Amino acid sequence: MLNERLTLFCELLIHFPSHWSICPCSHGAWGLLIYRQYKFINSICKSTRWDTLVTKGSNHMTTSSSSRKRIFVKLGWGIGAVLFVVGMYFGAMQYWMWKWDTPHTPLPTNHLSHQDLANVSEGYIELSDNAQQEMIALATELQSVSMSGAMIKEGNLVWAGSVGLANVEQAIPASVDTQYRVGSVSKAITAVVLMRMVEEGLIDLDAPIQRYLPDYPRARGDMTARQLASHMAGVRHYQFDLTRFPPTDGYSNHEYESSIAALDQFKCDDLLFAPGQGFAYSTHGYTLLSAVMQAAGGKRFEALIDELVAIPSGLSSTYAEHLLTSTEQLANFYTSDDGLYGVTPEQNLSNKVAGGGLVSTSTDLVKLGALLLNGGLLQTSTLTEMVTVQPMFDGSENPQSYGLGWRHYETSRIFDENNKVDIIHHGGVSVGANAFFMLVPEYDITVAILTNGKGQRSRGEIQMLAYRLVRMAIEQP
Description:
The chain is α+β, with helices and mostly antiparallel strands.
């Protein structure tokens, strides 16, 4: 019995980390770390004749105390070694995370003196100057590494500017042409590609995805492209993963050949709920959506972006980051806070192109937004379907007011509670970057703000900056 219990304990140690790994059948790096100690303990369990050490009598027990002592000393050393290795692992992980996510180096003095401001028509010069000063004020308050923004009103570029450094090490200033990671704004762009495919009859939003991916296991549920695009398919988001640094499967430096290949990250995992029976924000869900789109379109997902959105819209700087042939215009990415910065580790975003792997410029984004608002890319009925908040299974509104790739609701933050404004938007957070992209249909305004410094406050503050800029544009005659 004792032999069985000790063996079970050893097995528990070796299998414990698999509960957090990418796939339940994978033990990952943790298993390799403690494998030798496991074999040592298990060999003791299997080689010891416990029945010769413990003998039961009618009213007494005879034991070999010296043998028992030696065995438990060995077990103690083995278990202690396992705990030591585990402790070292967690210690290294905590140190690495602290070093990676905490800025330590002072930013160069006057790094925000570097500015770029695009030319606008004469009637919008004052608005352009005021918008630029608003952005500079926020960048100064946050001590951002750099910030870029643009705004179009009624088809006119009324502001496009930047401030700060695209590359601190080489002192390269940011410009309106600097490319930034846009994080989950990629989902909004993916949704536009999806709806273009719908218009061309390439994909059915409500057909089971197995129509396009017949090998995807039905055990994962008969989900649809609509459910994936609205986060109602039950596919999980990132999860804690002890086999990685940082310990999340949202971070990857592995090159995936295609969106279909990237399904290996999660396709063996259970769903969070039956498709259509809940809401759970999921970047992995968008990876699966892009695989469906790739299969339906007959070409790589990245090629579909170019063919259906980027080229028709004249977007010259919007690409999948991992396929960039030139990084000359690409910003470096940093953590930043209180005048300090830290360089983020390299990351390959091929694991989540559709949900967080694109780069763009603020001017490209507002150009796309203006086309959407004015029927230049999607039919009005298609646009309406894309931004309509998808209902839950019981008919109620989903908790994020999410349509297909976009959030859509009325906000009081531009004016006040008595004058709410209808907005369509998506934000994005990536390693070393933040982004916010918003459409305001009532006033025909689109605005985008991008940064290459991920700080504690920057995500919410750039959204508030976008609200202030829209108010300025509305009030400008």
